[in-house]
Amino acid sequence: MEGMIGEVRIFAGNFAPRTWAFCEGQLLAIAQNTALFSILGTTYGGDGRTTFGLPDLRGRFPISPGTGPGLSNVALGQRAGGENVTMTQATMPNHSHPMNVDSGAGTTNEPTGNYPASNNVQVERGGTVYDVNSFAASPNASMGAGAVGNTGGSIPMNIRNPYLGSYYIICLQGVYPSRN
């Protein structure tokens, strides 16, 4: 399978073909791979005297270096991103939770199918009944502290795109690319 030295391809097999290697960040000897080293340098690791690194694309998706309108600059070999993110109150987008209320006096303690009323609502928790002032009588007033609150467990959520496991391979020997 002839390729251009430094070319990266997706390969569906479970082995790297001859003259190709998996892109798993491994270090190679410069002395045995001078052509590839002249292309990659130490962009992906190595000491630059005896070794250099291959790109590590395990669990990663390559993107072109540079920038575009509204995008951050990406350097060649730069690693960024992650599989999970933990949302906190500080990182959550601005949003609201509008709520309907009834301006009349409440007639039931059953919340199903009903709206909060203008008077205190009784809530039972752990065998104790509490009066909760769900909102003040004046417009645009804040709700009582017991009416709403923060919730959630700050558990990391997966943000990874759907994927199919395949190997990225890089050409070690082949046609040396010419520069324009």
UniProtKB/TrEMBL annotation:
Gene3D superfamilies: Phage tail collar domain (3.90.1340.10). Residues 6-62 form the Phage tail collar domain. It comes from the Bacteria. This is Microcystin-dependent protein.
